[in-house]
Amino acid sequence: MIRSEEVFHRFGQFDYFQRLNTAIDSTLKRLHEFKLSKSTLNTLGKIRFFQASTKTTLINSSNQSLGLHTHPMFGKRLTESPDPIASPIALLQNQPQTTPSLTMLIDFIQGFHYRLSDQR
Questions:
Q1: Which of 2, 85, 87, 89 can pair with 81 through a Cys bridge, CB separation 3.0 to 4.6 Å?
Q2: Number of CB atoms found within 10 A of residue 103's CB
Q3: Closest by Cα among 115, 72, 116 to 92
Q4: CA–CA separation, 71 vs 73, rounded Å?
Q5: Residue 71, Cα to own-chain centre: how many angstroms?
Q6: Contacts of 60 (CB under 8 A, 6+ apart)
Q7: Are 64 and 108 in contact (CB under 8 A)?
């Protein structure tokens, strides 16, 4: 979404937005180069920490938050059930995946504090 035409037209002329895009490009490039072996992934998958439900929220310099991801089981205690694997999966099947709207993203970007010299 951050690379959409509407976002670019609103922020493309600002240096901070160009730096943000450059940082995203660099991060994505490094991410695609990062590979783990199957045995490493299998080992990590067995560690309880990596099995936990997560929630990812960004907070800008104006203290506005932008929710990127929330696992439906985040913050919920798992009760003992006959099948501990199938029970959470059944709950996940009915959960819609939501992403922030473009308006929310634009408001979030506008909430960053930046120096006036960055606008030139």
A1: 87
A2: 9
A3: 72
A4: 5
A5: 12
A6: 66, 108, 109, 111, 112
A7: yes
Structure tokens belonging to residue 35? 């590979």
Number of residues assigned to the chain: 120
Residue 74's Cβ-side half-sphere holds a number of Cα atoms within 13 Å equal to 11
| Environment class of 76 (CB within 10 Å of its CB; exposed 0-12, middle 13-18, buried 19+) | exposed
Predicted confidence (pLDDT) per residue in 73-105, tens digit: 777 766 555 555 555 555 555 566 678 888 888
Q: How would you class 61 by CB atoms within 10 Å of its CB: exposed for 0-12, middle for 13-18, buried for 19 or more?
A: exposed
What tokens appear for 13 in the block?
Answer: 């002329």
Within 13 Å and on the Cβ side, how many CA atoms surround 51? 11
Dihedrals φ, ψ of 55, to 5°?
Answer: -140, 130
- Alpha-carbon 23 to chain mean position: 15
User: E strands along the chain, which residues?
Assistant: 55-59, 65-70
> Residues 43-71: pLDDT tens digits?
988 888 888 888 899 998 899 999 888 88
